[in-house]
Amino acid sequence: MRPADFPPPFDPAEFVREPTDPADERIDVGILIVGAGPAGLAAAVRAGQLLAERPELAERLGDVPIAVLDKGRAPGAHLLSGAVVNPRAFRQLFPGLTTKDFPFQGAVTSEGVYYLTRRSAIRIPAPPPMWNHGNYVGSVDEMGRWLAERAEELGVAVIPETSATHLLVQGGRVVGVRTGDKGRGRNGEELPNFEPGSDLKARVTIFAEGTQGHLTGVALDRFGLQSRPQVWALGVKEVWEVERPLNRVIHTMGWPLRGAPHRREFGGSFVYPMGEGRVALGMVVGLDYTDATLSVHELLQELKTHPKIRKILRGGTRVAWGAKTIPEGGYLSFPDRFHMPGGLIAGDAAGFVNVPALKGIHYAMRTGMLAAETAVEAVGPGRTAWAPGALAGYDEAIRTDYVWRDLKRVRNVRAGFKYGFWRGAALAAISITSLGTFPRRDFKIEPDAELPVGIPKTPRRYPAPDGSLTFDKLSSVYLSGNKTRDDAPNHLRVRQTVAPEVADAWVHMCPAQVYELAAGAADGLARVEVTASNCVQCGAITAKGGRLTPAEGGSGPEYSVL
Ligand SMILES: Cc1cc2nc3c(=O)[nH]c(=O)nc-3n(C[C@H](O)[C@H](O)[C@H](O)COP(=O)(O)OP(=O)(O)OC[C@H]3O[C@@H](n4cnc5c(N)ncnc54)[C@H](O)[C@@H]3O)c2cc1C
Ligand code: SF4
User: Fold this and answer.
1) If you measure from the C-alpha of residue 325 to the centroid of ligand 1, how many angstroms do you get, rounded to a whole number?
2) How many domains does the structure of the chain reveal?
3) Which residue, among 256, 241, 239, has the nearest Cα to 308 in the 3D structure?
4) Which of 78, 480, 492, 495 gets mutated to test ligand 2 (max ligand atoms within 8 A of its CB)?
């Protein structure tokens, strides 16, 4: 049964509107950036640097020349990554600083890639995209906080706790966004602390919403820019305080995933040292898998029972947990254009991720910088930012940049794994060694929700949580710092009566235990109960047949070291 056979009650047109606030109530911004992740904050810093060189232009853009919105409680609160970072974009953005000034926790000094079976770990040669010499380990939450401070120093208004919910379109062009209301009850009623959202009008809007960008999706639909589908992986991550420092970066493939082609279980794990006393570890699995009983959260728990991983964590304590999706289609899923009248798309929102390298941060930052350069140019004297082609320079800049070259070379690697682990690995080797020349044709990308899911005769079994090495979903959600009110309106659009296989797939997939099977179904269908307040906004449900929309600003997880 395909999740796509139960489409969510969601119409993108519902989220497009004209500005309605009177001129004296709305906020006018020069360059508006939606999303304070690496892409949005690099865009803010770059725009701030350029306007600092052109004060007359900053003056022309009004009281708020640059603003960045984020739905998290503070910059970094909704960011989650590995993260081994290629410092290239940091160096480009801050040419006056050196690597020791950046918010990194240490250089990668040693690394190993392993193929796991249940009990053993076989070291295998690292494919070139996974070479991390010259890269640095860090927490993207810390990077977010650091970049937000640099942006504020340049006069950027960084506005947290604010969800952009509607796309403002007027005269066929994007003119900004409307922010979400706060203080509504379960059924939409106004509570005593109700605050209405407001229109933010902008000359140029940069969409840097990251994975599963809500308004990005609405804009791609409104301007007809997504002719090729996107696909995603779900990553679940923990941070541990450990007794013995880990001295190298580890990646694993194989167990607990299974390699048979019909299962389509693509992914692996990462274990990164975070300074002397902490270790980050995570499991990433493509959401095109077919086993409805697969749970990435529980696979991560199982991974920790492997002798190799257990040894690293022995005597340690789990201090953080979170989950987030990664857009994995890369070059083969790029939108037809990265710009539209009045708008630009940067970072994960456009799919700038190198899957075999598990890298997106420097691509997000770089595309954010290029978007900012285009935007500042377009708002200059004698220019009309929304005139046809005014923002086309952004696409040209990307096509001549390392972002394009890197992602084009690895374009077939992820898609080749639809043929199973071993054939996929062989195709990946050919693709990587030929620098993307072979295979000559581009593989077809199939949307995750269009692949059937089934309940196997022997459903997957996972280790029972013991509360010291392995944990259940609810205690993990608690550790994420999730602040969503129990009586907030439901921000998840899903059908609640679906095929049993689809219901089971959602129950297992959601790392935050949002979906549970409920009584009362009929006609061979199952009923799903939704506890939206558990949601950590990872985005997986959008890939697998539902739709995540922005929750009230300031709700959701409060990540700080992920
Ligand atoms: C498990 C995992 C491991 C990874 N490991 C690595 C790694 O080791 N190295 C690496 O380079 N990359 C890694 N990546 C990828 C990397 O994290 C991303 O490519 C990068 O964070 C993308 O940056 P971004 O700014 O485009 O999006 P994001 O980091 O997702 O930031 C987007 C921001 O926009 C906000 N937002 C979204 N929508 C709205 C809205 N409507 N209104 C207001 N705010 C909004 C979000 O709250 C968020 O703060 C990993 C990703 C995952 C999930
Ligand atoms: S409900 Fe929330 S936490 Fe669960 S899969 Fe969907 S987006 Fe992720």
Assistant:
1) 9
2) 1
3) 256
4) 492
| pTM reported for the whole predicted model | 0.98
In whole angstroms, what is the distance from residue 504 CA to residue 520 CA? Answer: 16
The per-type count for the chain, helices as H runs and strands as E runs, is 15, 26
Q: Any idea which residue has 């977010």 for tokens?
A: 144
Residue 42 CA: nearest ligand 1 atom is 25
Q: 3-state class of 233 per DSSP?
A: strand
Long-range contact pairs involving 216-221 (C-beta distance under 8 Å, separation at least 24): 216/345, 216/349, 216/350, 217/12, 218/12, 218/15, 218/16, 218/167, 219/167, 219/174, 219/340, 219/343, 219/345, 220/335, 220/345, 221/12
Span from the CA of 480 to the centroid of ligand 2 (angstroms) = 13
Task: Name the residue among 125, 562, 539, 130 with its Cα closest to residue 358.
Answer: 130
Please tell me the predicted confidence (pLDDT) of residue 450. 97
Residue 222 Cα distances to 17, 169, 340, angstroms: 11, 9, 10
Taking the centre of ligand 1 as the mean of its atom positions, its distance from the CA of residue 114, in whole angstroms, is 26
SS3 529: strand
Domain, as residue range, for 33: 26-183+194-483
453 Cβ contact partners less than 8 Å away, ≥ 6 residues apart = 1, 2, 3, 289, 290, 291, 292, 501, 502, 504, 505
Distance 183 CA to ligand 2 centre (A): 22
| Ligand 1 atom 34, closest CA | 35
- Atom 5 of ligand 2, residue of closest alpha carbon: 510
Q: How far is CA 113 from the centre of its chain?
A: 24
Q: Is 360 close to ligand 1, i.e. is its CB under 6 Å away? A: yes
Tokens describing residue 355: 């899957």
Number of other CB atoms surrounding residue 485 within 10 Å: 17
Mind listing the pLDDT tens digit for each residue in 293-342? Answer: 999 999 999 999 999 999 999 999 999 999 999 999 999 999 999 999 99
- Omega prior to 439 cis, within 30 of 0: yes
What's 166's domain CATH number?
3.50.50.60
Residue 479 lies in a domain: yes
The answer to whether residue 15 sits within a structural domain is no
In a domain, 421, yes or no: yes
- In the prediction, which pLDDT does 66 show? 98
